[in-house]
Amino acid sequence: MGTLFNELFDYNFYCNKKLIQECLAMNTVTPNSTKLFCHILNAHHIWNSRILGKPSEFQVWQLHDIKNWEDIHYENQRSSFEIISNADNFDKRIDYENSEGRLYTNTLQDILFHIINHSTNHRGQIAVDFRLNGQTPISLDYIHYKR
After folding, report:
1. Please, what sign has the CA dihedral across residues 64, 70, 76, 79?
2. Does 61 map to a domain?
3. Contact, 67 vs 93, CB < 8 A?
4. How many whole angstroms separate alpha carbon 146 and alpha carbon 8?
5. Dist CA 38 CA 16 (whole Å)
6. E-assigned strands of the chain?
7. How much is the pLDDT for 27?
8. Residue 26 belongs to some domain of the structure
9. Which of 6, 26, 65, 71 is the most exposed place for a label (fewest CB within 10 A)?
């Protein structure tokens, strides 16, 4: 299971890194794309924090300067790899409180998969936003990554 998650997080890292590079090269990034990408970064950080039982440093929709995206992204990735490397049971139940204060429990593997899926979903929304604003979205399909 750890090998699969390492591979999926490698893919996630690759996609986010390419998107960051694309945004840094643009003259302006739309407010919607900025909001969505910051949300990807924040949610990844928040889920890592929940798994580790630590308080989150970010709010769900907190905005970050584009100059800080790479550092936040790198730290999220480092933290996720540490979680995966130290996991002895991916069926372990994680208790956490959501952003509205409700208590939930999910397995580690479900949370890790959610981080990947959540990022993919919002990258798709960013691709649509790019198109709506005359930009060509970059191809981030998993099969292209694997080729």
Report:
1. negative
2. yes
3. no
4. 11
5. 11
6. 93-97, 103-107
7. 87
8. yes
9. 65
- CA dihedral (117, 141, 84, 51) in degrees, to 10, reads -20
Q: For the chain, give percent helix, strand, coil, nearest 5.
A: 65, 5, 25
**Count: domains in the chain:** 1
pLDDT tens by residue, 4-25: 999 999 999 999 999 999 999 9
Q: Which residue has the tokens 């929304």?
A: 125
In a domain, 120, yes or no: no
DSSP annotation string for 6-31: HHHHHHHHHHHHHHHHHHHHSS---H
CA distance 84 to 2: 6
Give the predicted TM-score (pTM) of the model: 0.96
CA distances from 55 to 22, 40, 64, 65, 134 (A): 31, 18, 18, 22, 39
Name the residue with tokens 């090998």. 3
Give the distance from CA 121 to its chain's centroid: 10
Range of the domain at 52: 2-98+126-146
**Of 6, 9, 3, the residue nearest 120 (C-alpha):** 9
Residue tagged 């480092």 (tokens):
78
pLDDT of residue 16: 98
Does residue 121 form part of some domain?
no
Q: Please check the confidence at residue 31 and state whether its pLDDT lies above 90.
A: yes
